[in-house]
Design a protein that fits this description.
Elements (H helix, E strand, L loop, with lengths): L5 E2 L4 H7 L2 E2 L3 E6 L2 H17 L4 E5 L13 E5 L6 H15 L4 E6 L4 H4 L2 H17 L3 E7 L5 H10 L2 E8 L2 E9 L11 E4 L2 E4 L3 H9 L10 H11 L5 H15 L5 H9 L2 H9 L1 E2 L6 H14 L16 E3 L1 H10 L3 H7 L9 H8 L6 H14 L4 E7 L15 E4 L5 H17 L4 H9 L9 E7 L3 E3 L2 E3 L2 E6 L16 E6 L3 H4 L8 E4 L21 E6 L4 E6 H6 L10 E3 L1 H9 L9 E3 L2 H6 L2 H16 L3 E11 L2 E11 L22 E4 L2 E2 L3 E11 L1 H5 L3 H17 L5 E6 L15 H4 L4 E7 L13 H8 L3 E7 L5 E2 L2 H4 L5 H4 L10 E14 L4 E4 L1
Parallel strand pairs: 3-7, 3-8, 4-5, 4-6, 6-7, 12-13, 30-31, 31-32, 32-33
Antiparallel strand pairs: 1-2, 8-9, 9-10, 10-11, 13-16, 14-15, 14-16, 17-18, 18-22, 19-20, 19-26, 20-21, 22-23, 24-25, 26-27, 28-34, 28-36, 29-33, 30-35, 35-36
Helix pairs in contact: 3-5, 5-6, 5-13, 9-11, 10-12, 15-17, 16-17
Protein name: Pyruvate phosphate dikinase, PEP/pyruvate binding domain
Organism: Gracilibacillus ureilyticus
GO molecular function, one term: ATP binding
């Protein structure tokens, strides 16, 4: 870099005082007002024009223009209201475009407060912009208004910039006081200087200096502008309803985001007091994110119920929210912004994601943020907590992001230092999950890859209690207000359904080997589950997810062990004693074994108000949303009549309506077809022309080793991407998208997101009856992506399934993948130009021929 090449300020006397500017200098002026700043810019710009410099004016402020229209100056107008990431990225790209040795004038940075309301983010912007300008040998002028920003913001700017100058106007005279001039020094450099045209007088005499500074407001410590806004808002609680409403709107735009359907619902239900209460539990600044908003709104809707039906059943929550600005601060202060900008381009979107993810997992947090994290931990003591993603786009209408980002349990045991380390690592893990492959694919396929995806975080106390060494709630699950997955005409679709587990709710949203959540239709909670199964024990939940206090981690234990330590309520509320196994154990001489149970929730569903309360809660939230909802919950019991429900998450449930009626012919038994079934499908009434069938043979697949099962998944991913513009019907054994190959084909959702319909096949005769995907995160993806879903129970009396119908067609596998000889018996791909998939919801009929 040509550090010795001097650049003039346009004031020759001042050039002598500071030994001129240098290429690479960022020059920050602390000013009283914009007029002062304009007065110092003019000579600099005039001299630069005279020297034939390339000059750029970056305009973003609300204040009047600093430079009038001039053919020698290019103006970029950048909209700060689009948010920090969009603004910083746009400026990064214009600096990149304009290249080396360009001169820049920026509007007053303090004006960014009107768009961002956060000193923290102004400091972050300067930290990402300044080094890049330095790298390109530019000279850039910035200003900040004196006595507006926090010490930490000023300190960050001082540390980053090359030149920091105080500009004073006292009694009509202009003084410049250099505070930092990098790599230059003279005996008088850091005195104040009186500027009179091109002449400069150094104020070295103590009497003159003290007289000058007596007339100057010294730098005062200030709260972050964010805190000032919320502190002033508290005073409005004593003002009129109209004034409160205006201030509430302002605060909601800071915490919740731009106008949207969710914003309107929050505006309808939240008072100014509610918003201030939320703000009081925020760490840092910025939005609290979609997951936090959804949870808070659902709880508020229920608490405002006119009949007061729910108050006595609702568990109080005391969550904290890590503001979305902390996510950017973490990236900026660890020096990864340039990498982030590269990753946000189409070319670098996937290329740089892995590197950025690895860095995010190892970064450090600023000291002031660490202190706030410590205070959150001290509040919770040693209660287990969960650190959950709450991105700006999450849990919104149209984009649920179900399961795309991580949530991390902190069992919260050990010394304060160990517990703090757990919390930090959990936050890093959630931040890093923004670079997960599924999340990247999801954003790309919904046209969101360029949209700001700031990650806020929700920290919740885990619901439950200690039972011996383990901590867990009695029950947890997922509830849907609309049950479009009906399997006979007597099921009321509008009554909703829940997917219930004993212990932590992880088993309700994630799939587990050989374990089954209880699927309950809320119109008739005690009716039998979806599958026609004789063996109730085999197809129930056998493992319980718990937080182990001694091991300090999330783990699983056997049901009998977990339930044997439940002391605060009758166990038969959840499970019935397995008398057959108990008798056998006694016969074999096992005396000290835990009593064996079958988890059937029989008494819970038959003799408590729980199913009705859940049904009414889901219906009420759905009524207000005017849309079906998907809720995660826990529940803890003191008796069958005394229980508390904790709504931990709520989002719009992406569903398809009935659509136009479809006339499905009734086939004679002798007429061939591929699939015919009653019920067990979701996706509305459809008449879908099928271009290709991709079929995975159950027997061949089950005979493969685990490694080869993963290979099948990867091959299918390659094929579906090549056929993404065609209507593909994907048919195979067990659960598509499982993480356990023994339960089905372990494809990632990103590998099958282009298919039009999928079918999961189970066979009791072959001993292969994995639980349906309904209610899981994977299933949410299927519904959101408008993929038709069907489950097929081969061997049932209402099912016709004839693989030969398509197996007689040529297998085209070799056309789409290389080295497929070993897989041609397992994967069959055929072109089906005349095939149609038909479904009709009212009579629950499906036909594919």
């Amino acid at each position: 870099m040509e550090m010795q090449l001097k650049v003039s300020t346009g004031m020759s006397g001042f050039d002598e005082t500071i030994d001129s500017l240098r290429l690479g200098d960022n020059v920050v002026w602390q000013v009283e007002d914009v007029d002062s700043y304009k007065g110092i810019i003019t000579p600099f710009v005039n001299k630069a024009i005279k020297d034939n410099r390339k000059i750029i004016y970056v305009r973003f402020g609300q204040h009047r223009k600093l430079i009038e229209t001039n053919n020698n100056i290019k103006v970029y107008e950048v909209d700060a209201k689009k948010g920090f990431e969009s603004f910083a990225t746009e400026i990064h790209r214009l600096i990149e475009k304009e290249g080396y040795k360009t001169f820049y004038i920026f509007d007053n940075l303090t004006d960014l407060l009107s768009s961002w309301n956060s000193d923290l983010m102004i400091g972050n912007f300067f930290k990402v912009c300044c080094p890049y300008l330095f790298e390109l040998d530019t000279v850039a002028y910035f200003a900040i208004t004196r006595n507006v920003h926090t010490y930490s913001t000023i300190a960050g700017i001082r540390e980053t910039t090359q030149v920091l100058l105080d500009l004073y106007e006292v009694e009509g005279k202009r003084y410049i006081h250099p505070l930092k001039v990098w790599q230059r020094y003279s005996p008088t450099m850091f005195f104040p200087h009186l500027i009179e045209g091109s002449n400069v007088k150094s104020i070295t005499a103590s009497s003159e200096a003290s007289s000058l500074f007596a007339n100057v407001n010294l730098v005062e410590e200030r709260m972050d502008n964010w805190d000032v806004i919320f502190a002033k808002a508290k005073d409005a609680l004593n003002e009129s309803i109209e004034e409160q409403e205006d201030i509430k709107q302002k605060l909601m735009s800071l915490l919740i985001g731009e106008k949207s359907k969710m914003y309107d619902l929050c505006n309808q239900y939240f008072t100014l007091e509610d918003i201030l209460r939320i703000a009081s539990r925020e760490v840092g600044t910025g939005f609290i994110g979609g997951k936090s908003v959804g949870m808070l709104l659902a709880r508020k809707i229920l608490s405002c119920d006119r009949g007061n039906r729910f108050s006595k059943y609702m568990e109080t929550h005391d969550s904290f929210y890590i503001g979305s600005d902390i996510f950017y601060t973490y990236i900026v202060q660890n020096g990864w912004w340039k990498l982030r900008v590269k990753q946000k381009t189409k070319e670098g979107y996937y290329q740089y994601a892995k590197e950025l993810k690895e860095k995010i997992l190892t970064g450090k947090f600023p000291a002031n943020i660490k202190e706030q994290f410590i205070q959150v931990l001290e509040y919770f003591g040693q209660s287990p907590i969960i650190v959950r993603s709450s991105s700006l786009l999450e849990d919104n209408f149209g984009n649920a992001f179900a399961g795309k980002y991580d949530s991390v349990f902190c069992v919260n045991q050990g010394s304060p230092e160990e517990r703090y380390e757990q919390l930090e690592n959990a936050i890093r893990t959630v931040y890093a999950s923004t670079m997960n492959e599924d999340a990247l694919e999801y954003r790309m396929n919904r046209g969101l890859f360029e949209k700001d995806e700031q990650m806020a975080i929700l920290i919740q106390r885990v619901s439950g209690d200690h039972y011996s060494d383990n901590f867990f709630p009695h029950v947890a699950g997922v509830g849907n207000s609309s049950n479009l997955y009906v399997w006979d005409k007597n099921v009321d679709m509008d009554a909703g359904m829940i997917r219930l587990v004993f212990g932590l709710g992880t088993r309700a949203v994630d799939r587990t080997v050989d374990d089954y959540a209880k699927i309950i239709t809320l119109d008739q909670p005690t009716r039998k589950p979806l599958m026609h199964m004789e063996d109730e024990k085999k197809f129930s939940q056998h493992g319980v997810d718990v937080l182990s206090i001694s091991a300090n981690k999330l783990t699983s234990v056997k049901l009998d062990e977990a339930i044997s330590h439940v002391w605060d309520v009758e166990r038969n509320l959840f499970a019935s004693i397995d008398t057959e196994t108990a008798f056998r154990l006694k016969e074999l001489g096992y005396r000290n074994m835990p009593t064996p149970y079958i988890l059937d929730f029989k008494n819970l569903l038959k003799h408590t108000a729980f199913p009705k309360v859940m049904k009414d809660m889901l219906a009420e939230i759905s009524r207000v949303y005017d849309y079906p909802v998907d809720v995660e919950f826990t529940a803890n019991f003191r008796s069958k009549d005394d229980f508390k429900i904790n709504i931990v998450q709520c989002r719009p449930l992406q569903t398809k309506g009935l659509g136009k009626s479809v006339d499905i012919p009734i086939l004679p038994k002798e007429e061939p077809c591929f699939i015919q079934t009653n019920g067990n499908f979701m996706g509305g009434n459809i008449r879908l022309p099928v271009d290709y069938v991709i079929y995975v043979d159950m027997d061949q697949y089950l005979a493969l080793n685990e490694k080869n099962k993963y290979s099948v998944a990867r091959i299918i991913g390659k094929v579906t991407r090549q056929l993404k513009d065609k209507n593909i019907f994907l048919v195979g054994p067990g659960r598509w998208g499982t993480s356990t190959p023994s339960l089905g084909v372990p494809v990632h959702f990103s590998e099958i997101q282009h298919v039009s319909a999928i079918c999961e096949i189970a066979s009791q005769a072959k001993g292969f009856m994995p639980e349906l995907s309904y209610g899981s995160h994977f299933f949410q993806d299927i519904v959101e992506s408008d993929i038709f879903y069907a489950a097929l129970f081969d061997g049932d009396k209402n099912v016709r399934f004839h693989p030969d119908y398509i197996m007689n067609n040529e297998n085209l596998l070799g056309n789409f993948a290389v080295n497929t000889e070993n897989w041609s018996e397992t994967i069959h791909i055929c072109k089906t130009p005349d095939m149609e998939l038909l479904s009709e919801i009212v009579n629950q009929r499906l036909l594919c021929k």
